[in-house]
Amino acid sequence: MLLGVLYFYYYKEGDTLLYNRRGLWGAALLDKYGLQAYLEYLFLDTVPQQSPLAGVQVPYYSSAWNTVKLVSIPLALTGGNYFFSTLYLSLFSFGGMWFLVNKLSTHFSGTTEAAVLAFLFFPSVVFWSSGVLKESFIMGGMGLCVGGFLELYRPQNLQHRIKYFILALSGALVMWYVKYFVAIAVVAFLLLAFILRILCKSETVGRLNIYLKSGMGVLLFAGVVLIASQLNYNLNFSQLPVSVYENYLKYSVVPEGKPGIYLPALEPTYLSFALHAPLAFFGILLKPFIWEVYNPLTLVAAAENTFLLLLLLLACKDAIHKRIKPGQDWHLLLAALFYIVVMGVLLAFSMPNLGTLSRYRIVFLPFLLYLLLSSTSARHFLSHFKISKK
Q1: What is the Cα–Cα distance from 85 to 336, expressed in whole angstroms?
Q2: Which site from 64, 103, 232, 326 is most exposed, i.e. has the minimal number of CB atoms within 10 Å?
Q3: Domain locations along the chain
């Protein structure tokens, strides 16, 4: 509700207003042309020439176009009411995250508090994953996808596996529909975890030496990455650095006096990206700093980042004292770390405006928070808060 109030009465422009306006055009098809016309719009991308949607329709994959179609569904159900619609979308987002929190709590005992705080209570994650925004669909779908994948890890009967496979696939498709690169990244690193698990636990592969297993793992994951790179033109190996660099130039104009991620020497090459990656990653994690605050929203962001810095220092302390023990599911930890770093770096390069990044980074931030809050020192701190799983 507050997100809608912020955009309607303060910003008076932004994605949520755009999706709402065009979603109303889609919902109007149901009233004006009937159910068949509306279903043709949803499933066949066919709209009457008299509809305003005909003027904004594109002949190729467009995440904005797809998001508008999804937004039109709750708007059609609520008579075009934005604030009632936002409740439906927030419920979907929360439902996916709630499902994931329960699966993390079951799969990794003792991490309930960390999962609850990271996915359900961290302010920016909650705020930006609620309402009429792409992130509501992304976070809900991500919760279903990752939670279903975790459930597939457990020894269950075939019927159980089929159910959770369908659930995970449905979550991946929702993510793909509104932001293809997030869906690809999530699925790719889940497959990495699956590949590592097979290489480590398969009796047949287990007889091979560590070098052969490592080589097989690299080749298999390279195959996954190669396939992923063919799913969209912008992900092609030759095009990816150019696309990311063009986005950086497009959004790197930050108003004077406002914090941002400045990389003046960045070039559209993999070498340049690798050299700038550490600065970009820590920029998206820790900026704005507390001394860069210039309005209430940046104050909240800076407070969150200060808390995040504290958690990073506690994790470094545990690493120095050798208190970090990945356990038997180390492959899941490794895949999660790769996902966090890759998404953080690519988002920082392609969208250096910190105001936008505080929203975009929620696709990886709760996973990082979950890992940091699960560290020995952080868990000792959380032990003072009694959060029970029933």
Answers
A1: 33
A2: 326
A3: 2-82, 255-390
Long-range interactions of 200-209: CB distance < 8 A, separation 24+: 200/331
Phi, psi (5° rounding) for residue 59? -85, 10
Q: Which helix (H) or strand (E) holds 23?
A: helix 15-33
The helix-helix angle for 35-44 and 15-33 (nearest 10°) equals 140
Taking the model in full, what pTM does it have? Answer: 0.89
pLDDT, one tens digit per residue, over 337-367 is: 999 999 999 898 887 777 778 888 999 999 9
**pLDDT at 335 > cutoff 60:** yes
Residue whose structure tokens are 């690299």: 218
Distances in Å between the alpha carbon of 104 and those of 81, 308, 367? 35, 21, 11
119 by Cβ neighbours in 10 Å (0-12 / 13-18 / 19+) ranks as buried
- Collapsing DSSP to helix, strand or coil, 7 comes out as helix
> Across 13-17, 60-64, 65-69, 284-288, which has the greatest mean pLDDT?
65-69
Cβ-proximal residues to 37 (8 Å cutoff; 6+ apart), any chain: 29, 30, 48
DSSP code per residue over 218-287: HHHHHHHHHHHHTSSGGGSTTTHHHHHHHHHHHH--PPTTS-B---TT--SSHHHHHHHHHHHHHHHHHP
Is 255's pLDDT higher than 60?
no
Q: Over the stretch 187-244, which tens digit does the pLDDT of each residue have?
A: 988 988 888 777 776 666 556 666 666 676 677 777 777 777 777 777 777 788 888 8
CA angle 357-226-184, nearest 5°? 35
Nearest-angstrom CA–CA distance, 184 and 150: 17
Rounded Cα distance between 88 and 94, Å, is 10
Q: Which of 204, 190, 111 is nearest to 146 (CA)?
A: 190
